[in-house]
Amino acid sequence: MSESKRAAGRRAAEFIESGQTVGLGTGSTVFFTLERLAERIRDEGLEIRGVPTSIDTETKSRGFGIPLATLDEVEKIDVTVDGADEIDGAFQMIKGGGGALLREKVVASLSDRVVIVVGADKVVERLGSTFDLPVEVVPFARAVVHRRIEAMGGQPALRMRKDDSSAAYLTDNGNEILDVHHADGIADAAALERALHEIPGVVESGLFIGLAHAMVVGEADGSASVHERG
Ligand SMILES: O=C(CO)[C@H](O)[C@H](O)COP(=O)(O)O
């Protein structure tokens, strides 16, 4: 599993060129991109500035010595490398397993090119078949959003912290996440995305439609293949 993530993450770092502003996604696959970018900065003098999509990525990037910028300091992003929880043949994705979906979507929307790095197990025929859809919600409205999503046929579950505090997980933005199960998967991701955004209290959904330009798929044998969206 981590060998496929490593292969994809490191391969994507090879596409980055000096002078670029680079969106830095979140997760265990992107970790390997950060690792390889740090090597290239050290060994080749690669000059980039990274825009992190989470506090976790910011911390890791600083540890690797990658120069960083905030969205206040950049007008656009040349290329973003990010992971996904599922991606289908049309390059539609479920993201947000790591809770960073809102910042990830903002950064992706500002990027000329978005490269998704995944292990082969993340490529699916139908979104929602292996992973529940994260939806970021304002805590005040959580119960209302929960009921609205249930009425739409989803089965939401409040994401909890992984310690024993019995407290709800909070995103970097102070919001909560409902992980929504769809028993038969998601038939029409674009329609669901539109419907979710019509619910007051929904901050963002983990459906990423039309945002990815390429995907790098890593395999357990350490190889990786690059696929461009048609
Ligand atoms: O969307 C994300 C975080 O919000 C991640 O990109 C996604 O969860 C994939 O993570 P990993 O590379 O650890 O499997």
From TrEMBL:
InterPro entries the UniProt entry points to: NagB/RpiA_transferase-like, Ribose5P_isomerase_typA_subgr, Ribose5P_isomerase_type_A
Cellular component per GO, a single term: cytosol
Cross-referenced Pfam families: Rib_5-P_isom_A
Keywords: Isomerase
Pathway: Carbohydrate degradation; pentose phosphate pathway; D-ribose 5-phosphate from D-ribulose 5-phosphate (non-oxidative stage): step 1/1
Highest taxon listed in the record's lineage: Bacteria
Residue numbers binding substrate: 26-29, 82-85, 95-98, 122
Catalytically driven reaction(s): aldehydo-D-ribose 5-phosphate = D-ribulose 5-phosphate
HAMAP family reported for this sequence: Rib_5P_isom_A
Protein name: Ribose-5-phosphate isomerase A
Species of provenance: Saltatorellus ferox
